[in-house]
UniProtKB/TrEMBL annotation:
Protein name: Leucyl aminopeptidase family protein
The species this protein was found in: Sphingomonas piscis
Cytosol aminopeptidase domain residues: 311-318
Keywords carried by this UniProt record: Aminopeptidase, Hydrolase, Manganese, Protease
PANTHER family (UniProt xref): LEUCINE AMINOPEPTIDASE-RELATED, PEPTIDASE B
Amino acid sequence: MTDFAPLLQPDRDQTATPIHLVDKAAFEEWAKGRPSEDRALLSAHRFDGKDAGAFVILPRPNGSFEVVVAVKDAATLGPWCLAKLGGALPAGAYKLSSGQLGQAGLGWLLAQHRFEGYKSAPKPPVGDRILLTDEPARIDEAVRLARATALVRDLVDTPANDLGPAELEAAAKTLADEYGGQLRVTKGDDLAQQFPMVQAVGQAATADRAPRMIEVEWGNPDHPRVAIVGKGVCFDSGGLDIKPASGMRLMKKDMGGAAHALACAQLIASARLPVRLHLLIPAVENAVSGSAFRPGDIIRSRQGLTVEIDNTDAEGRLILGDALTRAAEEKPQLVVDFATLTGAARIALGPDLPAMFANDEALAGELEKVSTEVFDPVWRLPLWDGYEDMLKSDVADIVNSGGAMAGTITAALFLRRFVPGDIPWVHLDTFAWSPTAKPGRPKGGDALGLRAVFSLLQRRFAQP
């Protein structure tokens, strides 16, 4: 993984190329103070500060250069305003003429991250682009967020033949070893007894991709307990209700919830938040074989609720149900789950907006607020009680699929059955994928909702 720490450093008057940030409101006044040759070059490029992300190289007589880049608001720097520069400028040291970094360090760092390990001829490195800042207090946070985002991207981008339940377990072990956490893995006969819905979904996979429940605990047991749950379906064929080829093409990313949960746990531990973290990842492959669970089967969950299988392609909510039950048994002060759960969420909100559900009004409002502040938006959908009837079964306590209508909501209502009402809970139905490339955000796996949740945790649990 990219070593981000050297790429963002305090400004100690080192020699560096200046970067000037201008927005459309300030551009004309700024341009008046520039040499005539700069104004001519800016005019030739039709640069007027209005097109955020556009930049121009301003050569100096001694062979050096300066850079001017347009930003949406020079007073409030979002995470992606320098991302284009971070990926395009030659290697070297740069500094912001304003000195203020804001949140822009994240995009600068991530623009230099690549996932090219599978290419026989990867692009040659251009060298490090180092950004100097007058806000050294922001450096550690930007590096932590870049590491966590890169972890999500790398895990999601890794093909399923190289990332199964065992590899998710290995990633959790790496996390536990690095930060002094305790790893617990349940599989085999113990899994069937303790987490029957996880066993049912994963039982058709080959032995080397056997299902398991992965748990990591970290932090002082006296601190408030926080549970982070991530859906770990390493590949989703749809099971016996098999997906069409087009629907299966990106299903290596169906463990995107687990990737988010691992990254969130890494952020919590690296920031030393005063919480007792409980990370839970039910890890499976939803495969097709003679031992696959079937439509019409009835499975008894860990909680004791019986679930009739209406659709084997609605498997993520099954494994999450057992994981949420386990999390709730420890009486946490907050539960957050991440899941690439429904196509209905993408139809409703597109790829950029995770659907957010919460059983607590104050919690939902707080998450919406911080998601805007950190430029990591989420969009709340209702836990609409009127749709509970869609989950009724004639022969069991509940069915696992409410059908196509309101599919995102009925999936969330299914999960709610496994969370006691007195435990604050947030569910994020995230895409974990960027279908098109943007500066700092290449096409492929991506973290959506991660920074918002971490910011919420910081505000709720960080010591003053």
